[in-house]
Amino acid sequence: MSSGSGIGRTITAALAAAIVVASATTAAAAPLPTSTPSAPPSPQPSPSDAQAILGSAQRYATALHGLNGPELEQTFLGNMISHHAAAVAMARLELARGTHPEARTMAGQIIAAQNREITEMTTWLRQWYGMTPEQAQQAAPASIRALTNRIHTGLRSMQSRLAAVPAGPGFDKAFLTAMTPHHEMATVIADAVPGRATHAQVTTLARQISTSQTGEVQKMRDWLRAWYGTGG
């Protein structure tokens, strides 16, 4: 075997080794492919969520201004019963998961007051109009039914987000942040009733809802500022 052949084999081996080393170095230096997982949705409603919900309530209230008498009463009562039921469900979560005594006390008050009002409104629909709450909602004008569906979708989303928050101090913030616009919706809708209802009981209830829930909204905003540095 000639010395030239040996030298050739040596050069070839050296080149191969260099290629291997270079490939390894390049692989080590190259950035690894990464995937950024999408962040889970926040369990707390954002300001845009609250504004959307309130916007639907304001449009609903505007539509109520076009109704009078029995049609106004049936529409208002049917929707407010569902709205109250959502508040009761959210308040029960606060009792189960919250820690602030003040917030838990308010939750208990919401449950007692709104369950009582649900019973009153359901009884009035049955006695005056022979209707269930569901029938009253379906009897509303088509434009109002569309707004009601939008409101109910927002309420379900609000409840789902709240239900995803674990027990502890953070739950109080989530509860107050959700219940504040929820109450504001009720006051906006209730304020459209006086002067249009047939029965004095309905007008009295609407004014009571507006007064009591406006006061609770102020308390919840005060607590959000004092406890978390935010006004809700």
From TrEMBL:
Residues 30-49 are annotated as: Disordered. It holds the Pfam family DUF305. The keyword Protein transport does not apply. Keywords: Signal. The keyword Zinc does not apply. Residues 73-224 form the DUF305 domain. InterPro entries: DUF305_CopM-like (IPR005183), Ferritin-like (IPR012347). Residues 1-29 form the signal peptide. This is DUF305 domain-containing protein. The lineage of its organism: Bacteria, Bacillati, Actinomycetota, Actinomycetes, Kitasatosporales.
